Amino acid sequence: MTAGPRYEVIGVAGIPEVRGGDDVARLIAEAAVRQGTPLATGDLLVVGQKIVSKAEGRIVRLADVTPSPIAQSMAAGLARDARLVEVILRESRRVVRMDRGVLITETHHGWVCANAGVDQSNVDVDCVALLPEDPDRSARALRETLRARPGVDVLVIVADTFGRPWREGLTDVAIGVAGMKPLIDYRGKRDPHGYELHATAEAIADEVACAAGLVCGKLERTPFCIVRGVSYQAGTGNARELIRKRENDLFR
What we know:
five-stranded mixed sheet; 12 strands; alpha+beta; single chain
């Protein structure tokens, strides 16, 4: 009997605390070898945003931040640290919503998320981590560095955790992509009943990020996963393709 479609997600632990300037590609490759699951050509490598940000020096110490009058005013209404609000505003191109202690913004990358992706978890006390300046560039750099190793031509997704409108809970999404198309477009194809699809575009990069998130977890100190067996389209896509164009967005 033929087995149905399947894929494998392998969490890799054992990476030391990442600091600014660290070679994340080397740390990833070495940890995978130590665990007995070395990277191989065709693997999808899903890397948590936090270690990328740390290596790129995207850590801010709040003691070094002087909040603007605008940040101070907003912080009072939100009951938040004015220094934190100042950092969020610096990372934002616009404020989407501010209510009940929650600050939703659109980042300079175009992502709409809580606090512009500024995160206080898994960093030193009184510090915050920012999103990478260009997560697609970060993904490409990781991929190119890893490709220098014999037999290692992997695709890379940089993932972060976002909330969702209208639904409780957080899920992982792709904010950086290298070596693959982040969307699989089924428009124009026909389903088994002969119906022509008109609006179906599968966010494969986000789905892979979510699958990896289930294995990496939030507290397990497993900052990356190897995903094998997933069908994808190789190419030069980027995660910004996942941002809905303004003219197609009914909620802006």
